[in-house]
Structure formats: C-alpha cells, structure tokens
Amino acid sequence: MPIEKYSAQEFEIFFDQIFDDKIDDNSVKNFLLDINSFNIPTNSIIGAILSLKKRMISIPNHEDAIDVCGTG
Predict the structure, then answer these.
(1) Mean pLDDT calculated for residue range 31-60
(2) Region 19-38 average pLDDT
(3) Are 22 and 57 contacting, i.e. CB atoms less than 8 angstroms apart?
(4) Whether the Cβ atoms of residue 3 and residue 34 lie closer than 8 Å to each other
(5) What are the φ and ψ backbone dihedral angles of 5, each rounded to 5 degrees?
(6) 32 with 40: CB under 8 angstroms?
(7) 8-26 per-position pLDDT tens digit
(8) Alpha-carbon span 59 to 61, nearest angstrom
(9) Which pLDDT band holds residue 72 (cuts at 50, 70, 90)?
(10) Where are the alpha helices (DSSP H) in 1-72?
C-alpha cells in the first residue's frame, strides 16, 4: 500500500517502533524520505503526535504557568 494511504493509527505504530528503537536506521531514513515525497501526509503527523504523547512526561506546575523558553 502506498505510504499516503496509511491511517494515523498505522503511522502511530510505525513511530512507536522508531521511538522504541525497533527499526534500523536505514529503514527509518527510507520511511521519512517516503513521507516527505508525499509532502508529509496529515495522517503521518497525527500518528507521530499520538506516539509522542504516549511518551510525554507531565510536570507539576501552577494552573496559570506558561512556558516562556520556546523549547516546548
């Protein structure tokens, strides 16, 4: 199946495997080049976000606190 036809959930699984270091560097490179050749499909961005959100660490803060350093 062409890469632009994958669902967000399928991209999420692939990004999970990348972030868990289960895919070799050459395959990751080819995957990212394929995504780029289709002007980065929306589903790939959604999949990456879903995968990253599972790994995010919540930091206790005040309700009105804001991040001012610009690094996220």
Answers:
(1) 90
(2) 92
(3) no
(4) yes
(5) -95, -10
(6) no
(7) 999 999 999 999 999 999 9
(8) 6
(9) low
(10) 8-19, 25-37, 42-55
- Cβ-count burial of 48 within 10 angstroms (0-12 exposed, 13-18 middle, 19+ buried)? buried
Which single residue is written with the structure tokens 């929306």?
42
Alpha-carbon torsion angle 55, 59, 64, 66, nearest 10: -70
Q: Is the separation of the CB atoms in 43 and 14 below 8 Å?
A: no
Q: Are 38 and 29 in contact (CB under 8 A)?
A: no
Residue type for position 17 = Q
Q: Is 58 helix (H, G, I), strand (E, B) or coil?
A: coil
Backbone angles phi, psi at 18, to 5 degrees: -65, -50
Tokens, residue 21: 């270091």
CA angle in degrees (0–180, nearest 5) for 33-38-51: 70
Q: What is the pLDDT of residue 39?
A: 83
